[in-house]
Amino acid sequence: MKKIIGVTGLWLWVSLCPGVTGATWYVQGAVSDSGNGQSWESAFQTIQEGINAASDGDRVLVAEGTYLENIHFNGKNITLTSTDPLDPDVVQSTIIDGNQADPVVTFSGTEDETCVLAGFTIKNGRGRYDGKYGGGIYGGGVYDPRTHATIRHNVIAQNKAPST
Predict the structure, then answer these.
(1) What is the mean pLDDT of residues 33-55?
(2) Could you tell me the residue ranges of all domains in the chain?
């Protein structure tokens, strides 16, 4: 019986986290100092630190809280997720706030479908290029400002075009 439960649990984890095969990096904005990101006890303080540490195939797991930053995927095919992207309460309380500085989330445009952004409230971003391109999420790319990343289970609100 234990083997069935173990195999079922593993199957459920793998099926809910497709493409995640590498390391897991932890982000907890409430920590007093950034650690090495390898556990909740030594978590990074910012999401960008987690992205910077990650390599293709890694997962960056973000605790609930408000993160006042503008993040850049930098072409990495990683999974960036809240602790439970399917729980609306967790999504609502895991906030990336762009502080009206730039788009909140920026992709380089080279990420593929294995790059995942899931389970966040993305707000207070400011668009680029006379408001043509996203204040919440900017797809990147110089000539083709789109991304092939998988973006799901997010709330994107209160973003605006740049001032003219």
Answers:
(1) 97
(2) 19-157
